## 1
Amino acid sequence: MKVSVIGGGSSYTPELMEGLIELSFEVFPLEIYLMDINEERLNIITDFSKRMVKKRKGNINIKSTLFLEEALENSDFVINQIRVGGQKARFLDESIPLQFNLLGQETTGAGGFANALRTIPVVLNIAKKMENLSPNAWLINFANPSGIITEAVSKYSKIKVLGLCNVPINFQNYFSKILNVPMEDVFLDYFGLNHLSFVRRVFVNGKDRTEEAFSKVKEFFSEEERKILDYLNMFPNYYLRYFYFREEKVEELKGKPKRAEEVLKIEEKLFELYKDPNLDEKPKELEKRGGALYSKSAVNLIFHLLGLRRGFQIVNIKNQGAIFELPYNCVVEIPVFIEGERIQRYIIGNLPLEVKGLIQAVKTYEELTIESAVEGSFRKALFALAQHPLISSLTLAEKVLSALIEANKEYFPKLL
C-alpha cells in the first residue's frame, strides 16, 4: 500500500509517522512517500522518520521526492498537510486584520480567508493530478482551513476526499479523561463546521452522560468557556471564543506575539533536534507545536476506510442532508460511521435556533470564498468577507481585502 504525504517536510510529520508505524504492523508492505518543495526540511524529516521506523521495527519503506507527480502516482491514500506561504504568510494573516480592529487568526475571519485563497488553487491542482495518477485514492485533507479546502475539492474534482481536524478527537479524549473511560467508548453528538462546532450530548457505550460531563468540565473551563456553556447548554469548540468574545479577543491578540512567531521559534528548535542522528523517537518538544492526536485521527481514518476497523469518526464531509438547514453539497463536520467504502452520516437534523444563524452565515462566507478562489472573482471575495460575522461590513471588507491582496500579490494575481 502506498501512502503519500504532501507537505512531508512539515515539523508535524514525525507525529504522523508515529501512527503510520502502527499501521504498518497490520498493513504491509507499506510504502510512504514524503513530498515537499523545501528540500532541506524534507531531507531532515526523511532521515529522522527512517530512524523512527528502524527503532520500532516498522514494516515501512520511506521515500522522499520534490516532485508531486512521483508522490501521487498509484497512491492509495494522499495526506495533505501543506501550508501555502509558510509561517511568513501566516504572520500576515494574523497581523493585517488587526490593523482594522478585526480578528487576526489563521483559520477564522479575514486571516482564514487569506489562507483559504492561497491554498485552494494549490490543493485543486493536487486533486486534478490525482484524477489521472491515482484516481481511486482517498485524499485526507489536514490543510487549514480544513472544511473550506475539503469542500473546494469535493465540488471541483472527482476524487474521494475527507477532511480532518484534531479538535473532534481532542474533544473525545477530553471527555474520556473527565469521565474516566476509554476514548473509544465515547460518542459525541457533534455538529457544525470546521472550527465552528458544538457538542450537544456525550454518550459512553450508548449511555447519556452529558449532565455528568457538564458538571465536571466547568472546573477546568475558562470563564469565557463557562459562559458559552451556560448560555448555549452545549459544549463549545475552542474557536467559538473568537465569535462570542470578538472585541476582547481582538484586543488580546493586539497585545501579544503572533502565533506564527512562536511557531517559527518552536520549529527552529524541533529541526535542530530532528537533525540529531541519535534521536529516533518523537521529541517531547513537538507537543508545543500543536496538533495533538493528529496521528491517531489520520491512522484511525485509514483503518476505517480499509475496512480493518469499523466505527464512528468525526470528519469533514459533504452534508447530503445530515444538517437540514445547510446546502446538500456543502461540507460539514459531523460523526460518520465508516466500514470500508460504506460511509453513513449521523443525522443532525435541525440546527438549534441559538446557533443556526451563525453557522449559516459562516457557511455562506465559505461558499463565496471557494467561488472567489476558483473564479478569481474580486466581487465574491468582497462579499465573502462582508458576509462573515466577524466583519459584517462592506466598508471594513473593502479595506482588509485591499490590504490582503497587496500582501499576497504572488498568490492572488487574479484579484489584482
## 2
Amino acid sequence: MKKIAIMLLFTFIFGCKPAQRENSKTITITSEEIKETVSYLASDDLKGRNTGSEGIDAAATYIEKQFKDLGVKPYFETYRDHFQFTNTRPKDVSEMNKEVKAFNVVGFLEGSDPVLKNEIIILGAHYDHIGEGKAVEGDLIANGANDNAAGTSAVLALAKYFSAKKNNKRSIMFVLFSAEEKGLLGSKHLSSLLREKGNFDLYTMVNFEMIGVPMKDKEYTVYLSGYELSNMAEKINEYTKTKLVGLLPKAKAFNLFKRSDNYPFHNAFSVACQTISTFDFTNYDYYHHVDDEAEHMDFNFMANVINKIIPAIETMANTPEKEIYMYGE
C-alpha cells in the first residue's frame, strides 16, 4: 500500500507539471519574426496595399494564415469583416465615386474567466497603405513599412504571444483595419457594427501606428495619443514598471487622438481607446513616401517595444476590475 501511495503521489505531482509549464513558459518576440512580417507586407509584390487592390487582398490572406496557424479564431464567420465605400479620393479620376469592396481582418481569443471573458480588449492597427506615391527614380510604390506594416507586425506578434500563453481572463480581439488611409473607414465600420450588437462590452483598445523607428532624446520609448485624456499611459507604466509611455506635445497639438483607428471606438463606446506610436515628426522622412521601405525599420527596437508592452496588455487582460478609464468618468 505504501508503494502504491508513493506512486500515486508521484503521478499527481508530475502529472500537473505540463499545464504549469505551458502557462509559465517564456515567450519572447524576436526582431527576425518582426522583420519577416514587415518585409512581406511592405514588399513591392503587394504594391502599397491600397484598399480594394490585389495587394491588400494578399496582405489579408497572409494575416489570416498567421491567425489560423496560431489558433486565433475568426470573430465572425470568417476572418474578414466586409464593408464597402464610395471612392472619393482616387489617384485615377476614372475611379471617382466608384464603389470599393474592403475588409478588416478580425481574430478573437476568448478569455478563460467565465465572467471577465465578456469584457473585450481590442489590439489594432491598420494594414492598408496608399498604393502609389510621387515617383522617385521611377519608383511609384509607396510600400508603407512604417505606415503601417510596423503596427500590423505588433498585433500579429501579440496574437502569437497570447495564443501561446493562454493566460488572458478577458477576451482579446486582434483587428487589422483597412481603409484607414481613406478616412478611418474600416474602424468606423467595425466600431459601429459592434456597437449595434448592444451587448459588446469593450474595456479598452490599444492601437499601434508607425512604431518602426525610435524617437530621439526622449525619456520615454513610445508616446500615447490622447495622453492627457485617460489614465492609460499611467497604467501602462505602472504595469510594466518602466517609463515606457510619455507625452509628445506635437501629438496633442495635431490632435492625433482623432486621427487614427482608436478614435471611432472611443466615439462608439466612450472608453479609453488610444494609439501607441514613435513617429514624432522629426525621426522619419518617408511618411506617405515611396521610400517607406522595410530597410529603414529598426527591427531590434520594434521587438523591444512589443516585448515591453506585453506585461501591460497581460495585466489589462487579468485585473479583477477595469482599471483603465477616461478622466472625467
## 3
Amino acid sequence: MTERIHRRGGLVHHRDFRLLWAGQSVSDIGTAVSTVVLPLIAVVYLHASAFQVGALAAAEWVPWLLIGLPAGVWVDRSRCRPLMIGCDVLRAALIASVPVAAAFDRLGMAQLFVVAALTGLATVVFQVAYLSYVPALLDRDDLAEGNAKLQGSGAVAQVVGPGVGGLLVQAFRAPFALVVDAASYLVSAVAILAIRVREPKREPVAHRSLRREIAEGLRYVAADPFLRVLTIAPAVANFFFIGFEAINVVFLVRVVHLAPATVGLLVGVVSLGSVVGAAIARSVGRWIGTARAVWLATLVTAPFGLLIPLTTGGAGLAFYVVGNVVLLIGVLVYNVTVSSFRQAYCPPEILGRVIATMRFVLFGTMPLGALLGGTLGSLLGPRDAVWVLLAGNVLPGLILAASRLRRLRDLPDRPAGLRAGAAAMPHT
C-alpha cells in the first residue's frame, strides 16, 4: 500500500522512501568511488593497456546480455525487496575480495575481470527489482518527485565519489579504496531491510514458461512506438558514450598527464552536470512538455561532448568540464523524465519485463561500446578515439527528433488498469 504525501516537503516526510533514498545515496557514493578506482587500479597498480581497461569496463556490462531478459521475469514473479537485499550483500562480498587479495599481494587483472562480471550480474537483478519496487512504494502522482530525488542523489554521488576515490588512491594503494564501496552496499541492504511497506504477494501463474514471459516483454516494447524509440536511441548513446568512458581514465592519465587525485576531482566536478539535470528535469518537463524535454535535451546537449577531445592541461581542462557538464545535464533530464513515464505507463504485472527488455538493449550495447573504445584507444590513440566516440554520441538526438515524439508536447499516460496484453497493438 503506497503512501501519498501531501505535506510541504513532499517525499521527505515518507519514512520508507527516506530509507530507500538514504541507502541508495550511500550505495551510489560507493559505486562512484569504484567508477574511478577500478580503472585506476588497472592503469596505475597493474599497468593495464587501453584495450584491457576497455575490456574491464565491458565485463561490467556483459551480464545485461546474459541475464537481462530473464531478470525481468524473475522480478515479475518475486517480491523485489528480498532480491535487492541479497544482491547488495553479494556485491559487498565481491568488491571486498579485491582489497583482501591486494593485502596478500595476489591481485591481478583476472580477478578484476571476475569481480566486475559477477558484480554486474548482481547489479542487473538489483536494478530491475529497484526500478520495479519504486511504484510499489510510492503513489503514482509521486513518481516524478521520487525519481528526481533518487537520480539527484545519484548525481550528487557522482560529484563526491570520484573525488573521494581519487584521494583514497593517492593516499593508499589503489585497491584499498574499494573498502568504501563494499561498506556502502551493506548500508543499502540494512536500509532496505528496515522498510516497513510490504509488496503485495505475487499471484502464481500456472503453466507459464520463462521463454514465453520473456517474449511477452519483448513484444510489449517492440509494439509500442514510444517504448521502442526510447529503447533504440539511448542504446545508440550508450554504445558510443561507454566507449568514451572506458578510456576516459587512460585519456586523462596518459594524454592529459593528470595525477590520480586530480582525475578523481575532475570527474567529480563534471558530474555537477548530473546534479543540475536531475534538479531541473521536472521543471523542464512542465515548461516545454515531457516529450519535448526528452528529445530536445538530447539533441541540444550532445554536441557539447565534442569539446572534450580538445582537453589539455591547465586552462585547457575547461573544455573537459564544459563538455561533460552540458552533456550530463541532458542525460539526467532524459533519465528522470523517461523513468517516471515508464513506471506510470506500464501495467505493474509486466513492468519488470519492460524494464528488463529495455535495459537488455540499452546496456547490452555497452560491452560492445567499451570494447570499441579500448580498441580505438589502442589503434588510434586515446585522443583520436575520443573524437570518434563523442561524434557518434550525437546520433541519438537525431533519432529522437525524427520520431513521433517531435509532434507531441507531453508523453502519453496509459490508464493504470490496462491489461498487459493490450500492447500487442501499437498506438496510433
